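Students often ask what a 'structure token' actually looks like in practice. Rather than answer in the abstract, let us consider Cell division ATP-binding protein FtsE, a protein of 230 residues. Its sequence is given first.
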Amino acid sequence: MIRLRDVSFRYEGTARDGAREAVQGGAALRQLSFDVPQGGFRWLLGPSGAGKSSLLRLLHLAVRPTSGRMEILGVEMDQARRAGLARLRRRIGVVHQDFRLLPDLPVFDNIALPLRLQHRPEDEIRDEVLSILDWVGLRARAAARPPQLSGGEQQRVAIARAVIHRPALVLADEPTNALDDQQANRLMELFQDLAGLGTTIVVATHNDGLVRRYPSHELELAHGRLVRDG
Ligand code: ADP
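Now compare that with the structural description of the same chain:
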């Protein structure tokens, strides 16, 4: 469950940045109020600069609201302590637009990271990672380092790492921009399966074709405001 009430967010320093101030009035997100039930799927839409990445940053707790109330997976941000936030972050899987893979670690170990953070036994980790590598079609690249992979392969590794530990919330920023249509469709089927199992999913995208093929509840931002919730 996600619940936002009058949440605004301003990047520190933006108020002093004359150019940005003129265009944006300083706030990247303005008075957002919406709920996403557990197991809900939301498209996050809006033109470049509308605030999609900023909202995803708030939801994966990389930044805190400047004002307003936010509850993520039953945890109220005002009351959350540092240790609680670290635990909460481990229940969230994120597909970053720039993938953020660790370049010196083999693909296998990149994907295994969330399971290792949970101190799962190595034989279990091996089974889980090999099975998701099969699913993303990259078992043969398990020993490769991310810089040796194509953009689409790196994006599939990032997706595998985001979902391997069955997080309660998955946040994905343009997760199909390096995928072909068939791979994008498979990803959507995975997201639908995960939502069916109770995972909340928010996907920011510009892929209009994909949104048309998989119509679902939309959150649309314009100039940092929520202009559509339905
Ligand atoms: P979108 O993901 O929809 O393209 P963003 O969330 O990246 O939109 O951007 C929303 C607004 O916040 C824009 O005005 C952008 O310039 C500003 N912004 C984004 N990232 C930063 C940052 N790190 N520091 C300051 N301002 C930022």
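One point worth highlighting: The beta strands are 2-9, 29-36, 41-45, 67-72, 75-76, 92-95, 169-173, 200-204, 218-222, 225-229. Ask yourself how you might have guessed this from the sequence alone, and why that guess would often be unreliable.
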